[in-house]
Amino acid sequence: MSETLDRRRHPVRPDLAALDYKGRVDAGAFAEGEVFQITADKVALRPAPDGSRSIDTEALRGEWVTVYETTDEGWAWGQLDTDGYVGWLPSECLGKVTPATHRVRALRTYRYPGPDLKFPPLGLMSIGSQVSVKGEVENRGLTYAILEDGSAVVARHLVPVDYVAEDWVQVATELVGTPYLWGGRSSLGLDCSALVQLAAQAGGHDLPRDSDMQEAEAGEEIDHLDPVSLRRGDLLFWKGHVGIIAGPNQLLHANGHTMTVAFEKLDKAIKRIAETEWGEITRARRLPVI
Prior knowledge:
The protein is mostly beta strands. It has 3 domains: 17-95, Roll (SH3 type barrels); 102-160, SH3 type barrels, CATH 2.30.30; 168-286, endopeptidase domain like (from Nostoc punctiforme) (endopeptidase fold (from Nostoc punctiforme)), CATH 3.90.1720.10. 11% of the residues lie in helices and 36% in strands. It has 4 helices and 25 strands. Keywords: Hydrolase, Protease, SH3 domain, Thiol protease.
């Protein structure tokens, strides 16, 4: 017995599959999996254990991943808890699980070896990263959050894990100018669907990772597409692309045209994209803005 499953969302290979799939698919072996936490600021997930392969997506610090295999070459194959994405990543980026208390709300924030901005930073975390705060220390009028490993970040750059932004589209606008990066999922570089996912997450919406998944599942489908009647927060989809309606005749998207997150007049964008391989709009979906 076997079924065809999307490799991006199901930990199933011909030689190995998650134990939950036993009886559903044919695989050489089944593994229960072990949960780890991402300890790098960000790390690429790839379709194969090969650093020369293109990036499928990225995992951010503090996210959990269930690992089903590790190799002697230093790779791990697993599934992200955040959005269920499956892929290969370096096993050196994995550590023990510590439940998060906060997440990064600033576009990015430095992590220091202690509570002092003059210290050389240990790393740079993106919006959406998750941390466990153990206390706070004030130094020269600036409050630092002390993390589980003793490192420190500026406290006002964090929000509680259950915090919900009032306007998720505003979060997306803060990312204007961010470089476009295929498979990127951080404020240092991201693609069209990552812009939607990260901003919507800040507004309390848990969305799948890729644009085809979002087209099928995000919010509610708009039955009658009329660009004039679109609202702030509506999502427009093309083949392989998604953009956000930010206002009347205003599209916000991470795109390969400007190679950045940028605003574009909707009517001009529709005409321009129609002349490319992405073609006409395929669907529109409504994602509420508080």
